[in-house]
Amino acid sequence: MIRLLYQFPTWMQHFYRGVTWRQVMPDRRVVYLTFDDGSIPEVTPAILDVLKQYNVKATFFVVGENIQKYAYIYARVIEEGHRVGNHTYHHVKGSKCSLNEYLREVEACEEEIRSQDSEVRIQNSEVRLFRPPYGKMTGRQKRAILDRGYKIVLWDVLTHDYNAHYSPEKMLRIVQRYTRDGSIINFHDSVKSGQRTIEVLPKVIEWLQAEGYQIEVL
Predict the structure, then answer these.
(1) How many angstroms separate the Cα of 16 from the Cα of each of 9, 11, 107, 215?
(2) CATH assignment, 2-215
(3) pTM as predicted
(4) What is the pLDDT, as a whole number, of residue 12?
(5) Is 36 a catalytic residue?
């Protein structure tokens, strides 16, 4: 049961059909660092500094209202070559929204993404990424988002960086124990995760690289 806190087994993932939990590349060892809930001035710039130091690219699932408030930080995410995905406009919980309300949230975030930079429009022209806040949405919401051409991405390793009871050392142990080829590792650039994520990220990158993993964008 403890494992379910950090990594859902493949047989359970099959119940959430059409969603990407892990992305294995047949010819090389690849993992993916992802960050949810930004971009915000308290955390995102420090994460970008670490990624730049190690020459690593990541995928950011961004909240539309944060793009609107902090466009200069979002611009840096794009300028430094990271991938972006949709995380709704107000970081809403699917169970609290009707289908139409949820889709309006997704569309509003997409408008912010596309209004900021032509490179994003080109980047997202073929495959648009979406991650539901809290990792949850209804079946109808999932089907509607897939029908609109989004690739829905969840994760293979959950670090719990948003939980104040999880130290950077514990988060590193989670990554070390559960990461495998194709793992999508979930972090947050949020106030809740804050300093813990910033502190553990260099250690995670160093360990992944020492283990022979290539770190890529989704």
Answers:
(1) 12, 10, 22, 25
(2) 3.20.20.370
(3) 0.93
(4) 66
(5) yes
